[in-house]
Design a protein that fits this description.
The chain is α+β, with helices and mostly antiparallel strands. Helices cover 18% and strands 35% of the residues.
């Protein structure tokens, strides 16, 4: 009877386009055998008849449905590429896990996969469903760098009973950095007006200095000399993202205003040409630069030995430790020449007129050597190193008086000359006859 039933089914399907699938029938038979109870043969026959009825009804319905719809010509290639997946078994998951073990560098964040038929392109495409990755709270994901750099993302994704671990690495084009930078502010101590501060900026951002009459920018990684011109509070700040970040404050202290007075009438004190100088600015220290020498005091004497213009510089320091200076110029009309006269009267009864000795040598405490030279033959007619021993007009080589009206040459060499003073002087002297 079983064979008759199978023959009837085959005959009903002979005219159908779909070929008979014997494996499907065998699978159905296996299910029926698995659930049949241990009963009598008559009971088994009832189960066979019921199953056959279900199969016949299903086949008839399928045939009726296909006949009622428009027939679509399907190429063998299309039929080959079309698959219907009803459920993904655990064997598929195990196969994916084996592939992950084989390729540890590939991370799978998904635990399910859906196969979608693409009949228009005759290709099969696999679309991965999106799942949320739960990151380990103790692992930080960071991307940092300027321009192109390598960044990394790490995390653990859990879905259902299957776990996928992995690391994805790639190039990061992000120009932002989450790294906290340490900025070092240049340290500027309190300074005085007019002083210059050397400031070194070691940061990769600019430094701004602001204060009274001050707005000075020091570029990144550079150093500058900054002159502080005005007293008051100053701020040194970092320029971050175009904004000034307030930082340290330093003060510029007021400096004294130096000034002094000059007595332009030259005086001779102790045989030296003297110009009186006096500071008009109070302070704890007054320093003067006159020529190549430096002297100290609120009132000082300046000695100028040459004619022409001479510079005088005064520097005053106050109780705050700040100093200021000023320079002035003075003009000297006559050259200093030891205050020597150019003639004398050997026969005069006045001792001030009948001998020759440069007057300054009689006032100064210096070591010197004086000689008188006859210009006609160059011989020395007189020599002395004592200011009290002056020339009286006698030629020491002959013991006789020299000719009146003749010009002789005198020369003085000083051993311990004053600062800014030459150690040699010279001039002309003429003995004349009393009238």
């Amino acid at each position: 009877m079983k064979e008759n039933l199978e023959n009837k089914i085959k005959q009903s399907l002979e005219n159908h386009e779909m070929p008979y699938n014997a494996s499907a029938w065998m699978a159905m038979q296996a299910k029926l055998d698995a659930v049949k109870p241990v009963t009598s043969p008559a009971s088994n026959l009832k189960w066979y008849i019921s199953a056959a009825s279900v199969v016949v009804v299903s086949v008839v319905a399928y045939v009726a449905f296909n006949n009622s719809t428009e027939t679509v010509n399907e190429t063998p290639q299309q039929a080959k590429n079309t698959e219907i997946v009803e459920n993904k078994t655990n064997s598929t998951v195990e196969k994916n896990n084996e592939q992950n073990k084989t390729n540890p560098g590939v991370t799978s964040e998904n635990t399910s996969e859906e196969i979608v038929t693409n009949e228009s392109n005759n290709n099969r495409s696999n679309t991965t469903s999106s799942t949320t990755v739960q990151h380990n709270p103790f692992v930080m994901s960071s991307n940092s760098g300027n321009g192109n750099g390598t960044g990394s993302n790490s995390g653990t994704g859990n879905s259902g009973a299957n776990t996928s671990n992995g690391t994805n690495s790639g190039n990061s084009n992000s120009g932002n950095s989450n790294t906290i930078k340490n900025y070092i502010l240049p340290k500027v101590t309190d300074v005085c007006e007019g002083e210059t501060a050397f400031i070194k900026n070691t940061n990769d951002v600019a430094v701004l200095i602001e204060g009274p009459e001050m707005h000075f920018m020091i570029p990144a990684n550079s150093e500058r000399k900054v002159r502080m011109n005005k007293e008051g509070a100053h701020e040194i700040s970092l320029m971050i993202d175009g904004n000034s970040k307030k930082s340290n404050t330093f003060f510029v202290k007021r400096a004294p205003k130096a000034d002094f007075m000059i007595d332009t009438d030259t005086k001779f004190e102790k045989g030296l040409p003297t110009t009186k100088l006096e500071s008009s600015t109070p302070g704890i220290e007054h320093s003067w630069i006159i020529g190549k020498s430096r002297v100290y005091g609120e009132k000082v004497d300046a000695h100028f030995y040459k004619s022409g213009n001479h510079d005088i510089t005064l520097s005053v320091k106050d109780v705050n430790g700040c100093s200021n200076d000023i320079t002035k110029s003075i003009h000297i009309d006559e050259k200093y020449n030891l205050m020597a006269v150019n003639s004398f009267i050997p026969e005069d009864i006045d001792s001030r007129n009948n001998t020759f000795m440069p007057f300054a040598l009689t006032q100064r405490n210096v070591k010197f050597n004086l000689i008188i030279i006859d210009p006609t033959d160059g011989h020395i007619v007189f020599q002395s190193n004592d200011a009290s021993h002056a020339w009286n007009g006698i030629d020491k080589t002959t013991g006789n008086g020299v000719n009146y009206g003749t010009t002789y040459i005198w020369k003085v060499t000083i051993e311990n000359a004053e600062p800014n003073e030459n150690n040699e002087y010279a001039g002309n002297i003429m003995p004349i006859q009393k009238r």
